[in-house]
Structure formats: structure tokens, C-alpha cells
Amino acid sequence: MESVLHTKYKQEVIPALKEEFGFKNVMEIPKIEKVVLNVGYGRHVKDNAYIEMVEKTLTTISGQKPVHNKSKKSISNFKTREGMNIGVSVTLRGEKMYEFLYKYINLALPRVRDFRGLKRDCFDGKGNCAIGMKEHVAFPEVSADNLNKVHGLEVCITTTAKTDEQARSLLTKLGFPFKEANK
């Protein structure tokens, strides 16, 4: 079954983007390829209870089992060695991705404390967007009652857009609440 956000993309966003940017071919229209949820362990690298809690939380939020990320090289200032586990991530595609984005836009972001919109400069110059959250408690699946430690979460949205302007327009039409340009 198709999610609400995917239906909105097909029925409303595609025609609006086609008109706004003058795309002649439907394949030119930007779309979201994948969403990656990432949590770094930080100073809790050796705390197995914390790592298990992060894994469990990410599994609950995304509906998929996370993958461990290993460091590529040793950095003495961060006390990391090459091949050491430094975080976990989940890659969402297809319907799971659209279901997560719907939940993120309509349930999680409004629950963030002092939320006034997403920064407009969260794009990388190639149409991809990275949004950081200081607390994972904003998600409805996470109950604040049995939490030991609160951790952050990064949501990276990869699009097929060629420019940041196209990607921002795509995400805005899908319902992402970006701050106004002059603020």
C-alpha cells in the first residue's frame, strides 16, 4: 500500500515541479532516493549499554536493524582506532522511506522544543539535505519514561535534484517546514 506522502508526491509535487522549473521529461523531475538515519556514539564508544540502547531506539524509529559504522583511520585526539565502531546508521528506501518522512514532518518536528523551522542552509550544494536533531525523544515511538540517556540523530535526505534550489522546492512541496529566506 502506498503511503500518504508518496501519493502527494505523485499527484501534487510532480506537476508543480514540472511547471516551476519547466521540465520537459518526467525523468528530470527531482525525487528522493534515500534517507539515512545516523547516530554517532561520541564519548560512549566503550559503553555497551548505551550502544544497545541506541540500536534499539534506531530500530524502533526506522523499522529496520541498524548497521555499525567503523572508523576509517585512527585519530588520537578522539581516541579512536582504525576499524573501531563509532556509530550506527539505517538507510531507508521506497515505501519505508516515505512512511518515515511523513512521520518525521508531521509528528516528530512539531514535537521538537523551540522549533521554528529548518535552516535553509542544510543543503550540500548538490541537492542533498542533512538535518540534525539534538534529542531523539521527539519521535512518537520513543517513550520518555524509560530513557536513560538522550542522544542526537542526523537525518540525511539524498535527492536526484541538480541544485539546492530544486531540492528545497521538492522538500517544501512535500511539507518540510523551512525558515523564511530573510530570517
From TrEMBL:
Q: Which UniProt keywords apply?
A: Ribonucleoprotein, Ribosomal protein, RNA-binding, rRNA-binding, tRNA-binding
Instruction: Name the Gene Ontology biological process terms.
Output: translation
| Record carries keyword Calcium | no
Q: Large ribosomal subunit protein uL5 C-terminal domain: from which residue to which, for each copy?
A: 85-178
Q: What SUPFAM superfamilies does this protein's entry cite?
A: RL5-like (SSF55282)
Q: Write down the Gene3D superfamilies for this protein, in alphabetical order.
A: 3.30.1440.10
Q: How does it assemble?
A: Part of the 50S ribosomal subunit; part of the 5S rRNA/L5/L18/L25 subcomplex. Contacts the 5S rRNA and the P site tRNA. Forms a bridge to the 30S subunit in the 70S ribosome.
Q: Which family does it belong to?
A: Belongs to the universal ribosomal protein uL5 family.
What function is annotated for this protein? This is 1 of the proteins that bind and probably mediate the attachment of the 5S RNA into the large ribosomal subunit, where it forms part of the central protuberance. In the 70S ribosome it contacts protein S13 of the 30S subunit (bridge B1b), connecting the 2 subunits; this bridge is implicated in subunit movement. Contacts the P site tRNA; the 5S rRNA and some of its associated proteins might help stabilize positioning of ribosome-bound tRNAs.
This chain belongs to the protein called Large ribosomal subunit protein uL5
